[in-house]
Amino acid sequence: MLEQTIDYIRKIDDEIVSAKVKSYCETIGEKVPDNARLKLEIAKRLANPSADSEKFQSLSAKELSEIKKTIQRAEELAEYGDRLVAFRDLIIECDDAVPDAKLCLIAKDLTMRFSPELLLGESHSPYSLDARCENFANDYQTAYIAFHNSWHNERRRNEPRIRKLADMSRAADTLKAILDGSSEGEFDWIAKTEKILLLPLCEEISSPKIGFAPYCPNCGLRYGRAYDWSELDLLEREIERSLENCQTQIAKKLATDLVRRSSEDPLSGLVEAINVSDLSKLPSILTDDVIDALRKVLK
């Protein structure tokens, strides 16, 4: 058993393996476990051609088996360490941000499995963890890419609507400022539409373009943290109500003023009041001159 273990150890470059294990541990902010470090040190001595094998004759078959297993795990960690670090970064970034409940649970479970104590001990091997992480990454990327492409399709489809809402919000903001005698730009829905207009536009992507990244490198769209397009319906109704309310208030004031000025010819005044009450086109003609005229008339 001793000779077999020595032969196995001598076939690998223990210096490189130890260095890569140490590098992995440092990258994730941990130390090489004492138990694993001791076994790696014994393995290094066993692999030394000048070592006196008789010094290790007292090692039991179980101890030799554990040393060999630790070396195997260390060799796997040396091979898969860089990938595991990349997977770990991806999973940590994804944790709590994945709307898919199943993926979220898998991410939380995997997050706890990168400890060197586990990977070099009796738990799962680096190889098996790498395989599980790869499955997660593939499932995550499939879900993210579908989300990304669908979201941007909605963004493109809603572009004319967003711009129309931006115009409506500015008109409502201006009219409300005229009615209240306040400054323009004080109402949050105009800021909301401008923010939506700043949302990125991106082409469709595929898995190779993402790699280990948790989001698209071009637009940075985050899975589970992007603008919910259903909110656009709510914003649209809010702006429409505000605009209609402003138009109604202005129409009432103008109509009342016309009727009062037409005391000698009430019928004519009433007809003019009815005609002026339709202000549906007002938002589209809000030039500086029109705004000044409204301010003077509504004083």
The number of distinct β-strands equals 0
Estimated radius of gyration = 35 Å
The share of residues in extended strands comes to: under 5%
What best-fitting shape do the alpha-carbon axes yield?
rod-shaped
The arrangement of helices and strands along the chain is HHHHHHHHHHHHH
Uncertain runs: none
Helix content: 55-70%
Q: How many structural domains can be distinguished in the coordinates?
A: 2
Distance between the termini: 102 Å
Key phrases:
about 300 residues; mainly alpha; 2 domains; 13 helices; about 70% helix
Plain-language structure description:
The chain has 13 helices and no strands. The mean pLDDT is 82. The protein is mainly α. The chain has 2 domains: 152 residues, no CATH class; 112 residues, no CATH class. It is rod-shaped and about 125 Å long. Helix content is 69%, strand content 0%. Helix 11 runs antiparallel to helix 12.
State the gist of this model:
This protein is mainly α and 299 residues long. It has helices at residues 2-10, 14-27, 34-47, 61-94, 101-111, 116-119, 126-157, 159-180, 188-197, 207-210, 230-261, 266-276, 288-297.
Helix/strand layout:
Layout: H1 2-10, H2 14-27, H3 34-47, H4 61-94, H5 101-111, H6 116-119, H7 126-157, H8 159-180, H9 188-197, H10 207-210, H11 230-261, H12 266-276, H13 288-297
Helix pairs in contact: 1-3, 1-4, 2-4, 3-4, 4-5, 4-7, 5-7, 8-9, 8-11, 11-12
